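Sequence in, structure out.
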Amino acid sequence: MPNRFGPRGVIALMIPLQNGNMQPEYEAMRPEGVSNQIYRFSLAQPDDVAEAVIGALPGARGCYPDLIVCGNSLEMRHWSVERQALYRAEVQDAVPEVPVITATDAVETALRTIGAKKIAVLSPMSEVYSKSVASYYSGLGF
């Protein structure tokens, strides 16, 4: 819902508690007239990140957002295309009145938009999680 600081709209950004870079990066990309509202979740339990995001989503309703962006890459966990579809549904069920974009879905959309056929991924994660990334994008046909 637009407000005096965001007459064009309000975006609720779900970002990791432990990530100090994302908030200023999102602020640098913020279009004029849009208000970014930050909501955080913990990465303390790496395999429970999806649940942490879903648990933090109800708090984002308080700013009456026009859009919620979940800015974390879940494919960098034990993840699959099927698990992403389930997660997407769980996220939308948590805030049915607000459109939600996940970083994982945004990456897929961007790759398809530019016509990518093959990709390479550089991952700062463990070997196990890096294999999950490769498996996830292979499952999408890349």
